[in-house]
Design brief:
alpha+beta, 12 helices
């Protein structure tokens, strides 16, 4: 599911500084990294928060300043709405907005009035009366991008040299994107890069960027299983009620069994086995229906993750199946054995 949330906009590996938002190109030995086995290409990127204005319309956005390698590897041309602006992808003064940002600024594809003003905060600025905290640049929007809902609502894509001018830091980067050869192992290449970059930098795969998702999913599985146990306990009260009615209805049969010489242990086993039959039937039916629902989700994908437009992922694991089987069987045994002991003892009295 996580891999489906990503688009071509996200590189397989990224290098970022551990403690600072930006770093300088000279701090990394990109030439050595480029020559490593399994690496296809390297692109540079600078990301900053900016404000966009078109007439009286204002919007916050994240500007991603990239080089021509990123344009190629992220398949930007394939994500341009109606293909507008493809001939201007590598022009320094052209920008591309996410589809939602483009719409909010009331721009038009192919229009000659797609000029906007970008406000970038000045670095190391001491505010004085009458001074502006922003650097501004007037740029022409060449086209609109459609990647996913998150990017469409925030992204501004432009040339790396443009941001260098706006932020007065020609060699500053936010991250270095690493693209791999087909079949190359992200984990192995990541470990090799870490040896070159040193402790000051962090190298992350796409999955490591969403580590919180995995931690959340693991804790969620535990919480759901605990809730499931409470459901089993509540359902077991129905079993107790069924056994109570059964012993009440068969009170005369108990008297006959006792008169025939059947011991208390044998009489208990008759009702206990009947209770276990109810448990086996209920557990089998529940597991069967559960597996059917999971299979239908895997096959049809009728339940969709909101905002991601992908089906909720389901993976069958024998361990989970065994845990549910053992938990439901154990509770069924306990809620059959002890209530029957009490009920039959009262009937005998």
């Amino acid at each position: 599911m996580v891999s489906k949330l990503y688009t071509a906009f996200d590189a397989p590996l990224t290098i970022q500084h551990k403690s600072r938002k930006t770093f300088f190109v000279s701090q990394l030995d990109l030439k050595t990294i480029q020559q490593m086995k399994g690496i296809k290409s390297i692109s540079k990127e600078r990301e900053e928060l900016v404000v966009l204005r078109k007439n009286k319309r204002w919007i916050n956005a994240n500007i991603h300043a990239v080089d021509h390698i990123f344009i190629r590897e992220a398949k930007v041309k394939n994500h341009l709405i109606n293909g507008f602006g493809s001939e201007r992808l590598n022009q320094e003064n052209s920008v591309f907005l996410g589809a939602e940002v483009f719409s909010k600024l009331k721009l038009g594809l192919g229009s000659e009035q797609n000029d906007i003003v970008i406000y970038a905060p000045k670095n190391n600025l001491r505010l004085r009366p009458g001074s502006s905290p922003f650097k501004t640049a007037s740029l022409d929007v060449a086209g609109a991008l459609n990647y996913n809902q998150e990017l469409n609502g925030t992204v501004v894509l432009c040339n790396l040299n443009l941001v260098a001018t706006l932020f007065d830091q020609p060699d500053a980067l936010s991250r270095v994107n690493i693209y791999l050869e087909p079949g190359a192992s992200e984990r192995l290449v990541s470990e090799q890069i870490k040896k070159i970059t040193g402790a000051a930098f962090k190298v992350k795969t796409q999955f490591e960027k969403n580590e919180l998702i995995y931690k959340t999913s693991k804790s969620e599985r535990l919480v759901v299983f605990i809730i499931l146990l409470f459901v089993f306990v509540l359902a077991s009260f129905n079993l107790i009620a069924a056994l109570t009615m059964l012993t009440h209805e068969k009170r005369e049969n108990l008297t006959i069994m006792k008169a025939m010489g059947m011991s208390a242990k044998d009489r208990f086993m008759v009702f206990f086995l009947e209770g276990q039959l109810l448990v086996v039937f209920g557990v089998s039916l529940g597991l069967g229906l559960g597996l059917l629902i999971c299979w239908s989700q895997q096959t049809i994908g009728w339940l969709i993750v909101p905002g991601a437009n992908v089906p909720f992922p389901i993976v069958f694991q024998a361990r989970d199946f065994l845990y549910i089987l053992l938990a439901s069987s154990a509770l069924g045994f306990l809620f059959t054995y002890f209530p029957l002991r009490i009920l039959l003892n009262k009937s005998a009295q």
